[in-house]
Amino acid sequence: MTLHLKFEEKDFATLKSFEKAVYRQLGNNVYVGTDSLCFYFDYPKELVARLRPSYKGNQLEFELESSKST
């Protein structure tokens, strides 16, 4: 995939200005960082249902252990 964006000098004044310039060209379904640009796509409802099945009557248990040293 190749992406062509056009910027003006004023778009580099601040990160917020740059973010607005990207939003103007790509929409708001993106994350703009200083090192990268990420696109977000919504899954179709059918796929969401398959990825997040309901657990009616079932109970999930798990134990977490912190790896952070104190």
Describe this structure in words.
There is one protein chain. With about 70 residues, the chain is α+β, with helices and mostly antiparallel strands. It has a domain at about 10-50. About 25% of the residues lie in helices and about 10% in strands. It has helices at about 15-25, 45-50, and strands spanning about 30, 35-40. It has a two-stranded antiparallel ribbon with strand order 1-2. Strand 1 (about 30) and strand 2 form a beta hairpin. The longest helix is centred in the N-terminal third of the chain and has 12 residues, at about 15-25.
Counting DSSP H or I runs of 4 or more residues, the number of helices is 2
Shape: elongated
Tell me the quaternary state: single chain
Provide the residue-averaged pLDDT: 83
How many distinct beta strands? 2
Q: Helix content range of the residues, please?
A: 25-40%
List the SSEs and their pairings.
Layout: H1 15-26, E1 30-32, E2 37-39, H2 45-51
Antiparallel strand pairs: 1-2
Defining key terms:
2 strands, 70 residues, alpha+beta, 2 helices
Summarize the structure.
This protein is of the alpha+beta class and 70 residues long. The protein has a domain of 43 residues. Helices cover 27% and strands 9% of the residues.
